[in-house]
């Protein structure tokens, strides 16, 4: 695959790529819609991601190409850029703009992107593009950013340049991911713990609903606002900065402050989900995948009934998984929801059986097929190393 990319680079730019980089996608094992509420999440990097091949050019232009999209961008080097409609290249363009805003002197580059993350699936293809671009520019121009600064830079692209009010989890996970580790990340302090996540006889099944969705046009920002309303109500009596500053027991004592029943449901999910992450870290550290799986199911039920970001497609996947306890330890939607993907812990030797069964069950109920993938827990962003990606 990498050889084909190098050949395509040469065809497109009439020169050889001089550098290659890789940034993974991510799944969130548990802790959903927590990142913008100052709580704990538990993402991990996956083995799908974004490949970036780069070479300098003498034309003083950024020439951006993607194997996945037809849109191209040839743009002269200037002091800053503006978002252009909703094209894929806005993500690297935003990163370039941040480097320029910080006063770094850049030069023209030819850049070819290829992603094997399903687009719009909730596996953080956008964060993967942002982080691989930021990492590459940092390396090529010796900009001196730390990895955490690259994460914050990429989050700025998502929030300000693109205009999506997402938290920092996605960029953090694809930058700091470690093989066979889940990252228990405090989204307020950015302190994190790498939790052993040895899947043993299991692997991560990733089931893409294939439901069309545009996250920036979904109800994602509405959920952010509802959480802000809940926080404002609780702050009339509690000295807190985020919903996740309290546990479920404390919330129970003060939930009367939230008079809107919908907003109360949203806050209940967030606070209970934050507690589930703490329990999940304990079960994973003890290598107790079956107990962890129960927490996955509880998380999905909460996201479906309290936070209402699931839907029939994702619920169908979780429902099917529950009928196969002999091969599935747990399942839940992952990512922002409104379509996208679910994950399941599936026994390795039964993955083909699971894939066939979920495809038939889902297709019969929904009317079209899902896409089913298998992944292990992979590494974060870096210079592409063929040995690591064999």
From TrEMBL:
Stretches assigned to the Galactokinase N-terminal domain: 7-56
Catalytic residues (positions): 170
Localization per Swiss-Prot or TrEMBL: Cytoplasm
GO cellular component: cytosol
GO MF, one example: magnesium ion binding
Biochemical pathway: Carbohydrate metabolism; galactose metabolism
Enzyme class, broadest EC rank: transferase
Pfam families attached to this UniProt entry: GalKase_gal_bdg, GHMP_kinases_C, GHMP_kinases_N
GO biological process terms, semicolon-separated: galactose metabolic process
GHMP kinase N-terminal domain mapped to chain residues: 90-177
Site (Transition state stabilizer): 26
UniProt EC number: 2.7.1.6
Residue numbers binding ATP: 66, 120-126
Binding site for Mg(2+): 126, 158
Stretches assigned to the GHMP kinase C-terminal domain: 281-362
Reaction equation(s) it catalyzes: alpha-D-galactose + ATP = alpha-D-galactose 1-phosphate + ADP + H(+)
Domain of life: Bacteria
Binding residue positions for substrate: 32-35, 220
Keywords assigned: ATP-binding, Carbohydrate metabolism, Cytoplasm, Galactose metabolism, Kinase, Magnesium, Metal-binding, Nucleotide-binding, Transferase
Function recorded in the entry: Catalyzes the transfer of the gamma-phosphate of ATP to D-galactose to form alpha-D-galactose-1-phosphate (Gal-1-P).
Family: Belongs to the GHMP kinase family. GalK subfamily.
UniProt xrefs under NCBIfam families: gal_kin (TIGR00131), PRK05322.1 (NF003705)
Name of this chain's protein: Galactokinase
Organism: Mucilaginibacter agri
GN (gene name): galK
């Amino acid at each position: 695959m990498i050889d084909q990319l190098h050949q395509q680079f040469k065809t497109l730019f009439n020169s050889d790529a001089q550098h290659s980089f890789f940034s993974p996608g991510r799944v969130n094992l548990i802790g959903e819609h927590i990142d913008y509420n100052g709580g704990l999440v538990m993402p991990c990097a996956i083995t799908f991601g974004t490949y970036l091949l780069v070479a300098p050019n003498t034309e003083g232009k950024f020439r951006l190409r993607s194997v996945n999209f037809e849109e191209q961008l040839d743009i002269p080097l200037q002091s800053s850029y503006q978002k252009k409609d909703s094209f894929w290249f806005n993500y690297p363009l935003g990163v370039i703009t941040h480097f320029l805003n910080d006063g770094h002197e850049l030069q023209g580059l030819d850049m070819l992107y290829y992603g094997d993350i399903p687009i719009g699936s909730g596996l953080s293809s956008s964060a993967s593009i942002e982080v691989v671009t930021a990492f590459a520019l940092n390396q090529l121009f010796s900009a001196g950013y730390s990895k955490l600064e690259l994460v914050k830079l990429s989050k700025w692209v998502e929030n300000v340049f693109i205009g999506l009010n997402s938290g920092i989890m996605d960029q953090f996970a694809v930058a700091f991911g470690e093989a066979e580790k889940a990252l228990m990340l405090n989204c307020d302090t950015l302190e994190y713990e790498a939790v052993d996540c040895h899947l043993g006889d299991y692997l991560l099944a990733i089931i893409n609903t294939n439901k069309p969705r545009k996250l920036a046009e979904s109800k994602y920002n509405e959920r952010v606002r509802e959480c802000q309303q809940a926080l404002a109500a609780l702050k009339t009596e509690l000295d807190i900065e985020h919903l996740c500053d309290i546990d479920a027991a404390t919330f129970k004592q003060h939930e009367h402050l939230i008079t809107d029943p919908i907003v109360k449901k949203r806050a209940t999910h967030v606070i209970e989900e934050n507690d589930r992450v703490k329990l999940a870290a304990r079960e994973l550290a003890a290598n107790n995948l079956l107990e962890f799986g129960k927490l996955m199911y509880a998380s999905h039920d909460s996201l479906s009934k309290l936070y209402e970001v699931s839907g029939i497609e994702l619920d169908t996947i979780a429902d099917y998984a529950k009928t196969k306890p002999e091969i599935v330890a747990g399942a839940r939607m992952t990512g922002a929801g409104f379509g996208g993907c679910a994950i399941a812990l599936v026994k390795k030797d039964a993955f083909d059986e699971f894939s066939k069964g979920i495809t038939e069950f889902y297709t019969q109920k929904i009317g079209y097929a899902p896409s089913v993938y298998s992944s292990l827990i992979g590494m974060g962003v870096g210079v592409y190393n063929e040995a690591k990606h064999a």
